[in-house]
Amino acid sequence: MNWRDDAIVLSTRKMGENSVRLTVLSRDYGRYAGMVKGASGKSLRGALETGNLVRVTWSARLSEHLGQFKCELLQSHIVDFLALPGPLLALSSACTLLEVALPERVAQKPLFKGTLGLIDALKTEYWKPAYLRWEIGFLQELGYGLDLSCCAVTGKSLDLHFVSPKSGRAVSLAEGTPFSDRLLPLPAFLAGQAASDQAKQIPLEEQYNQALRLSGFFIHRDLFEAKGIKPVAARDRLASMIWQQGRIN
User: Fold this and answer.
1) Backbone phi and psi for residue 159, each to the nearest 5 degrees, phi listed first
2) Which of 21, 49, 151, 214 could crosslink 172 through cysteines, CB 3.0-4.6 Å?
3) Buried (b) or exposed (e) across 139-176, using 16+ Cβ within 10 A?
4) φ, ψ for residue 107 (rounded to 5)?
5) Are strands 184-185 and 2-15 parallel, antiparallel or unpaired?
6) H-helix or E-strand spanning residue 150
7) Residue 195 has what DSSP assignment?
8) Tell me, what DSSP letter sits at residue 166?
9) What three-state secondary structure class fits 228?
């Protein structure tokens, strides 16, 4: 059994003296793990850092075995993030979420493509909205997608201001205000032109905080709690940093 594909490094864990267990998100085969022998050698030094793009060849005698990887570095990203603590945490959060939440060996082409786009976006000044949109897309691909296109009550695509925690659907300002204590705020940058005028007046940094709470609510409830997954520490640290009102770059 063997295959060859491009993949994003999600994590490595030491195995013995000179080997690691490597977990990747591959373009055509999804989340896969395998052992890499001689991982500390010169040819692989720096290649297996989280977020790097590598070309991997996986092989095993039987498909159910852990198998082994041979790796070739295609694109290194870690140097770009060394002086960017916020984007670095966002990268760590995204890769860890992919590792803990995705089923093994199931193709995830949209998430692979979206994560490559996220890595590039994290190097720009727009890294916060890019990461937050990635989390919304991540939920969508796992079947917990939020419907932010129209009001759940009226069906109209205007004046959107809230999200129902039960259905994950948007609610307009007028329909949601009487129940505002039970609803989640919908950030205007996620709703676009359909957002309420009141939502559009909220400063962007506060909108990012709203988005973190919004996606975080569904991630914690539908993934962590429902599946008994340990919360991702990197995401919690990232949320704390973003909540500092833009003091992190």
Assistant:
1) 60, 35
2) 151
3) beebebebebebbbeeeebebbbbbbeeebbbbbbebb
4) -55, 135
5) unpaired
6) strand 147-151
7) B
8) T
9) coil
Strands 184-185 and 147-151: unpaired
Residue 237 predicted with pLDDT over 50: yes
The DSSP secondary structure of 203-220, one letter per residue, reads -HHHHHHHHHHHHHHHII
95: closest CA among 49, 145, 34, 40? Answer: 49
DSSP 8-state code for residue 220? I
- 203: its two tokens: 């400063």
DSSP, res 157: S
The model carries a pTM of: 0.92
Tokens of 178: 């009487």
Q: Cα–Cα distance between 140 and 125 in angstroms, integer?
A: 25
In this predicted structure, which of 70-84, 132-146, 225-239 has the lowest mean pLDDT? 225-239
* CA distance from start to end of the chain: 45
Q: Mapping DSSP to helix (H, G, I), strand (E, B) and coil, where does residue 205 land?
A: helix
Q: Which residues pair with 37 in a beta bridge?
A: 19
pLDDT tens digit string along 8-65?
999 999 988 788 999 999 999 999 999 998 777 666 778 899 999 999 999 998 888 8
Question: Hey, is 4 helix, strand or coil?
Answer: strand
